[in-house]
Automatic annotation (TrEMBL):
Keywords: Aminotransferase, Pyridoxal phosphate, Transferase
Protein name in UniProt: Aminotransferase
Keyword match Repressor: no
Cofactors: pyridoxal 5'-phosphate
Domain (Aminotransferase class I/classII large): residue spans on this chain: 32-382
Species name: Paucilactobacillus suebicus DSM 5007 = KCTC 3549
Organism lineage string: Bacteria, Bacillati, Bacillota, Bacilli, Lactobacillales
Length: 394
């Protein structure tokens, strides 16, 4: 018999466990399954960063830090952004968070009042929608498929005009993008800045993949519209520190002081030992991610060519480590059905596009954060599935 309990938070009725995680776990029991599902680097954390963490343990650096992080890690994070992307942050512009996920939650929890509108270009990573719902905001999604997954000023204007009853407070940017790998050129960001200013929108810019940009150098929108930007970053992707959960929020100092209130009551502070490791990563491993990026480019080019040859339509990714591919017309366009069938028959797990919203239906996401041997085997299995007439829709 279950224990009696009162009703839970009503917002939980609108929130599900991420379809990414659900699908990853559901396929784990398939024998010989090859999974290219999660967005996690296959590289090890750089040795010098590991050493810094070990030294912190040996030095018994095990007590609470200040809520926003140690002065050293906040300075290192600010210096990193300033040197890499031409920004002008000081330690007082930084909060150290438990990963970028907590950073997003704290930022949205600070700026949203019930009913406030948030523009979300879609398809997009699945973390934003539940948080907007949890804080009683109003998510308004913008389908970017017609423009190769890039948000335009006209889309912003049209969206706001179509919802005159909504008080639009913010827009989410995530670039390079999860799931598409598409990023924004500087001129595209400059065009967006004018419309963001016109509508007085906060820009919550998740740039966690900024060090994994291929081709043109990454431009942070914080360089173009600093006083309206809440910049999210971290070391999960650039330094393969996913499990260490270290992220950062950058914003004007007065806003940081408000975000710190939400952050404090969520987590108190980020882990002390990991903050020491982060100082080492930021100060002495600023280009560690660039070495990883060289391998990702080779992997991207290989997978892009192989899947294009199989008939998948792909908006060429210029960052992150994902391929977001349109399922060929000869096959079941229900992305969940396609991916389940592929996993069961050919033991290859890819993420259904529906996991990134209705705008992702008909697509699938492949993470190429795996070595070439695995990627070659994955392409062999995918090709075998695609070339089997029995798998095509009659």
């Amino acid at each position: 018999m279950s224990l009696y309990r009162k009703d839970l938070n009503n917002q939980l009725k609108n929130i599900e466990v991420s379809e990414i995680r659900q699908f990853d776990e559901a396929t784990s029991s398939i024998p010989d399954i090859l999974k290219l599902t999660l967005g996690e680097p296959d590289f090890n954390i750089p040795k010098h960063v590991q050493t810094a963490a070990k030294e912190a343990i040996d030095d018994n650096f095990s007590h609470y830090t200040s809520n926003a992080g140690t002065p050293e890690v906040r300075k290192a994070a600010a210096d990193f952004q300033n040197k890499k992307y031409g920004l002008h942050y000081k330690p007082e512009n930084v909060i150290t968070t438990v990963g970028a996920s907590e950073a997003i939650a704290a930022a949205l929890g600070t700026i949203l009042n019930p009913g406030d509108g948030v523009i979300v270009p879609a398809p997009i990573y699945s973390a934003y929608t539940p948080l907007i719902n949890f804080y009683h905001g109003t998510e308004v999604r913008v389908n970017t498929r017609s423009n190769n997954f890039v948000l335009t000023p006209a889309m912003i204007d049209q969206t706001i005009a179509a919802h005159p009853d909504i008080n639009f407070k913010a827009v989410i940017l995530n670039y390079p993008s999860n799931p598409t790998g598409v990023t924004y050129r500087k001129e595209e960001l400059e065009a967006l800045v004018d419309v963001f200013k016109k509508h007085n929108l906060w820009v919550v810019s998740d740039e966690i993949y900024s060090e994994l940009t291929y081709g043109a150098k990454h431009t942070s929108i914080a360089a173009l519209i600093p006083h309206q930007t809440i910049l999210i970053s971290g070391l999960s992707k650039s330094h393969a520190m996913t499990g260490w959960r270290i992220g950062f929020i950058f914003a004007d100092a007065d806003l940081i002081n408000e975000i710190k209130k939400v952050h404090q009551y969520m987590v108190t502070a980020a882990t002390s030992i990991v903050q020491k490791a982060a100082v080492e990563a930021l100060n002495n491993g600023a280009d560690d991610g660039l070495e990883m990026a060289k391998q990702y480019i080779k992997r991207r080019d290989y997978v892009y060519k192989e899947m294009s040859d199989m008939g998948f339509e792909i908006a060429r990714p210029d960052g992150a480590f994902y391929i977001f591919a349109k399922i060929p017309a000869a096959f079941n366009q229900d992305s969940m059905a396609f991916c389940k069938d592929l996993a069961q028959k050919n033991h290859l797990a890819l993420i259904p596009g529906h996991a990134f919203g209705e705008e992702g239906e008909g697509y699938l996401r492949l993470s190429y954060a795996s070595d070439m041997d695995k990627l070659q085997e994955a392409m062999h299995r995918l090709r075998a599935y695609i070339e089997n007439p029995a798998n095509q829709v009659n």
